[in-house]
Amino acid sequence: MNKKIALIFGITGQDGSYLAELLLNKKYKVYGVKRRTSLIHTTRIDHIYEDFHLKPNLILKYGDVTDFSNVFNLIDQIRPDEIYNLAAQSNVGVSFELAEYTAQTDSIGTLRILEAIRIIDKKRKMKFYQASTSEIFGNSPDKPYNEKSKFEPVSPYGTAKLYSYWITKNYREAYSMFTSNGILFNHESPRRGENFISRKTIIGLIKVLKGKQKCLYLGNLYSKRDWGHAKEFVEAQWKILQNKKPDDFVIATGKNYSVKDLVNLVLKKLQIKSKWKKNKDGLEYVVATENKQSIKKSQVIVKQEKIYFRPNEVHNLKGNYSKAKKILKWKPKINFDKLISEMVESDLKLIK
Ligand code: NAP
Ligand code: GDD
Fold this sequence. Notes:
It is a single chain. The chain is of the alpha/beta class. It is about 40% helix and about 20% strand. The chain has helices spanning about 15-25, 45-50, 70-80, 90-95, 100-120, 155-175, 195-210, 230-240, 260-270, 320-330, 335-350, and strands at about 5-10, 30-35, 60, 80-85, 125-135, 180-185, 185-190, 215-220, 225, 230, 250, 255-260, 275-280, 285-290, 300-305. It has a seven-stranded parallel β-sheet with strand order 3-2-1-4-5-6-11, with helices on both faces. Strands 8-15-14-13 form a four-stranded mixed β-sheet. A two-stranded parallel sheet has the order 7-10. Helix 5 runs parallel beside helix 6, helix 7 (about 195-210) runs parallel beside helix 9 (about 260-270) and helix 7 (about 195-210) crosses helix 11 (about 335-350). The chain is globular. It binds NADP nicotinamide-adenine-dinucleotide phosphate (NAP) and guanosine-5'-diphosphate-alpha-D-mannose (GDD). Guanosine-5'-diphosphate-alpha-D-mannose binds near residues 93, 133, 219 and 259.
């Protein structure tokens, strides 16, 4: 039997790297799209090239979802069975500063892929996965969110991703294409980008502990997120495309924690004794209450900074993954505590 062929837009990202591993282990031939950059940025997938068994089935191509002719030619030449669109400007905070670029990538990028499939795949054999997000719910009231909840995005990122959600559904209904959305809540891992809150907090506090940085600066401490493990969440992405029919699924853990809970957990894992205080402007900070490695008693080790607050915020995200559990037989196993332990251990090894 011929190997199944997958094409991943966004293979150099957190999810792309785990998804590539998963598909290669399932004996797929995997094509991945990487962007041209001035420095090589394939660190999340380099280990695959060191794996004798996986390497022959991974092929990287240059590409960008803002370039239709590139997207079209890739799909036309590769003729994949499954296409995963993970490519995005994925930072919500940054999307306020790069609103137009975020729309070009996160909205029109999806449309370009769908159009290419529609034109090329006349027999409607290709399956398409769209990386949708809990950000599309924004601050809509009916929590925990499921596939029927109202969408009220509050950022350029969330709004751009909502376009992609709908256009994916439109192409399914209008052209009978196999196009599905995974509405994924936050998921982290040791491969998480360093400017997302989990990794930023862990790296920052380890550097403070080792004397490489004096203090960690953060924004809003009171937003809540439903944090899962990326490795488990990419398995759901694959299962969504193995379902008999195209559909939309919420993927979450069903539990949520605040940013402050996250900071406290990392402090605990690093055994840093400390207490929270508030300054006259109402901004909070953390003071060490005893010496620990490079940290001195009374040192301010975490501080809220106005520049890290966003113009608008999603306050409280929690997902209901019952549909995925029932139909895809998917459920998360790694809880928040275990996830953060794994990330702390990994960064302790990296930051010597
Ligand atoms: P990530 O680490 O930021 O990876 C994003 C990937 O997209 C990278 O490979 C990036 O390439 C690529 N990319 C960015 N702009 C591109 C463009 N114009 N053309 C082609 N590729 C482009 O994000 P992630 O955490 O793996 O998330 C994967 C997807 O799921 C994203 O679409 C994200 O919005 C969505 N999502 C993520 C979460 C989460 O909590 N992680 C939750 C819900 C949805 P470079 O390496 O060159 O930058
Ligand atoms: N990044 C960041 N940096 N976030 C901070 C900081 C900081 O210094 N201080 C506080 N936060 C708060 C943010 O305001 C937000 O409320 C929360 O921490 C989580 O921020 P991120 O880790 O950047 O993730 P996100 O929830 O905005 O977006 C992630 O999850 C979405 C799914 O809900 C991204 O992965 C998106 O791509 C994804 O769609």
